[in-house]
């Protein structure tokens, strides 16, 4: 069984993908725009589920690979109010230098929640919310957990 994150960016998905490519070396492995979808039957379209409900150039579905992790993303499903509360994505960095690089990159245009530093449970740990409202935790564990 696998559990994967699916993030909805309310029209900013392409910008987010470009940001994560630059900040984290994310690789976009799949991308489908609303214009690529077949027409939806009337009941789905009436409920706002069809491709006709979004700008045809917006992203219906994308996969991005960050390290060994796949994250899915879309422009849809927010209704104008992206809300990324109640969860965070966590990145385990191989060393403190890489943790600082990652933390600074994803924090650009965002807000630091907890500065990156040594803790009782990690050689380095910090929390930052990126410019899209996604909370990230960056950690270099005390012990090698790889």
UniProtKB/TrEMBL annotation:
Please report the stretch or stretches of sequence annotated as the PhnB-like domain: 3-139
- Protein name as annotated: VOC family protein
Q: Where is this region: Disordered?
A: 37-56
Highest taxon in the source lineage: Bacteria
**Transmembrane annotation, as ranges:** none
């Amino acid at each position: 069984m696998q559990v994967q994150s699916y993030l909805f960016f309310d029209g900013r998905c392409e910008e987010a993908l470009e940001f994560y490519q630059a900040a984290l070396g994310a690789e976009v492995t799949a991308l489908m725009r609303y214009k690529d979808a077949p027409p939806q039957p009337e009941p789905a379209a009436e409920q706002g589920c069809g491709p006709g409900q979004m700008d045809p150039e917006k992203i219906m579905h994308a996969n991005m690979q960050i390290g060994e992790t796949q994250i899915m993303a879309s422009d849809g499903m927010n209704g104008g109010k992206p809300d990324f509360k109640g969860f965070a994505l966590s990145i385990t960095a191989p060393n403190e230098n890489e943790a600082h690089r990652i933390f600074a990159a994803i924090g650009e245009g965002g807000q630091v929640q907890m500065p990156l530093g040594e803790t009782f449970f990690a050689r380095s740990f910090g929390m930052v919310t990126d410019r899209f409202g996604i909370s990230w935790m960056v950690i270099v564990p005390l012990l090698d957990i790889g």
